[in-house]
Amino acid sequence: MASDLKRAAATAAELAAVTHLPVAHTEALRETYAGEWQGLTHEEIVEKYGEQYAAWKRGEPVRRGGGELETEVADRAAPVVLSHADRLPAGGTLVVVSHGGTIRTTIGRLLRLEARDWESLGGLSNCCWSVLGEGARGWRLLEHNAGTLPEPVLGDDD
Fold first, then answer.
1. Which of 29, 62, 130, 133 could potentially form a cystine with 3 if both were Cys, beta carbons 3.0 to 4.6 Å apart?
2. pTM of this structure
3. Does pLDDT of 86 surpass 60?
4. Do the beta carbons of residue 2 and residue 98 sit within 8 Å?
């Protein structure tokens, strides 16, 4: 499944060409809408919206540029991911192609982290991925911001 925005859809199409599997596109996986911050550089955001930016970096709920709250992004994306994961056959794999902010907030929600702590996951670089797996007590983060093929991680509860 993938965001319907151009870059994520193109990435998903490349994966589909290799796997010969269909891609379901959804608006729910779009990047965080950042309102008036959209299209600005980091420096421009700090200059024009310094206090708002600082509050966001402190983990406060901020509608950056009048856009979405991070919790709203997780509210729209995480249920879609969970719905698709619930339909997987035993041992199946779900690939989700989205955008850095949406992936980070969705992972934070799936791991049941407090929203103010989602930033601790760090950013996700372009063309990198994270791997989550089901553990005895819920979802587990097995890899984050990876750039090589993932290897299975065996732990005490596997």
1. 29
2. 0.86
3. yes
4. yes
